[in-house]
Every structure is written in structure tokens, then in C-alpha cells.
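call fold(seq) -> C-alpha cells
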Amino acid sequence: MNHQALRLSLVMAMLISAFLTGTAFAQAASAVITKSFNPAVVALNGSSIATITVTNPNAAVPLTNVQFSDTMPAGIDLITQTGGTCSTLATGGGMFFINPGTETFSSTSSVLAGGQSCTITVRVTGTVIGVHLNTTSQVASSEAPPGAAASATLTVQAVQAGDIPTLSVWMLMTLAAALAVGTAIKLRA
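ret:
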């Protein structure tokens, strides 16, 4: 019997055995992606840090070519990446692309080991008052079906009068005295 026929016989035997015993071949579980904003509420033109975490839930199966993308909705401007471990040596390398002009970024990690997580953090600015829902793409890998997308909400509020710093009466009096002394010195000279 040649090697090809032997392999075919072995595969057929495994399939028949699995069918008769009701055993299914296990598939790797999808990567899990989560997203949050900190702080979740900002004043108009205030900034927040968006954190995206991707986790491989498989204890012993590494996931390769782990990918996701994110496009900010109208009212949230993407500023810059502030950190993260996806697309670095920690994940076997990969690629990270950020395009603030189109409000998008994407990440590809070469390998996410079993049980490993990685993160991406980006700074954003709230430019329109309101509640803004941001949803990532599904997270994909070569070994598992796509995982569910992740969402987070950034609320942008108008600046309230109480948010504007004010000086106490004593501080105003000290400032007035300092200005008077400065003016008196200037006039004497």
C-alpha cells in the first residue's frame, strides 16, 4: 500500500470513528474583543483614552493573523496611538495602521498564544455634544471563526459654568494687591 492510500485509509477510519461515537472535531474558539473609553464622559473638545483588548480564550491553541479595525463615529476624532501590545514582539510582530484623517485604525497580530491578551490604546477627542457609540469590526484569526465586535460609548457634554475654574475672594484680593504693588513700583521708576 502506498503512502497516499495509507493516509486516506487513516483519515477515513478517523471520520467513521468520529461519526459512530458522536465525537466532533474541536475547532478553536474565536478571539474575544472588548472596548472601553476612560473617561467615558468628557467635556466638549475633551480627550479620552480608548482601550481595545483582544484575548485568545483557547488555553492551548495559538491564534495567528489576529485582525480587527475600528472607525470612530462622527463626533469623535481619533488623535494618536498612546500604547499597546498588539502588533509588537509580544504577539510575534504584526502591523498597526492609524489614520486620524479618516478616523480609522487597524491591527494585525502575528500570533496570540493560548490564553494571551493584547491591547491597543488611542487618544480621542469628543467634538460634538451627545452620546457616541463606537463599534469595532469583528475580530478574525486564521484558526477560528470571526468573533463578535465590541462597542463602547463616549458621552460628550457641554462645558458647565461649574466646570470653569474660579478664584476665591482671598485669591482675587491677593492678585489685586500684587498688581497694585507692581504698578506702584513701575510708576516710581
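Residues 169-188 form the longest helix (20 residues).
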